[in-house]
Amino acid sequence: MRKQGITLVYCIEEKISPLIETYVKSVGGYLVDNKLTYRKEIKKKNIQQINYPNGYTVEQYKEGIPTAKMNNLAIESGIHSRFNNDPKINSNVFKKLYKTWMYNSVNKTIANEVFIAKDNNNIVGMMTLNKIKNEGRIGLIAVDFLNRGQGIGSSLIHQGELWCISEGLESFQVITQQKNKEACYLYSKNKFILRKSETVYHIWLNN
Is pTM, for the whole model, over 0.85? Predict the structure, then answer.
């Protein structure tokens, strides 16, 4: 693989055996994530209109370029990600990756829809959505640190469920990290079910 110019290999396993774990570590692999996949079935009769927290609204983002605040929220959404946990990935590279993710979401290259939460005219949260076959998926989701604990995350998720219904989708999925306790609580509170847990290693071939 080195001859092909490949420098980074991902090892992702639901149940990693001690033998594989020992080998991965012996070749310089880093444990970078315990990835959790949450999913819920979309049932139209159980979805009601959104009652937003006082002073907040959720709306489609229609511009083709993200704001600086949206870029900051994108970076915040990845704080617990494997790209920020890997000691060999520079912080600036991690930030550029998530800014690019945000940019390619609003221009609809990798996302079908983007929603923002606003406090008056100030963006305080965002969520990107795409669809794979009959399933809606959250790509990025974040709420500003100063505005957490007020139901904004749940309002974004509820909006995502309404979007899934409008698109005729049957389920809704999101991936997060085991160490991201706030996110895990948010998804459980909104009746997502933990469907899969995976261990992720990064193996750098230029060690």
Answer: yes
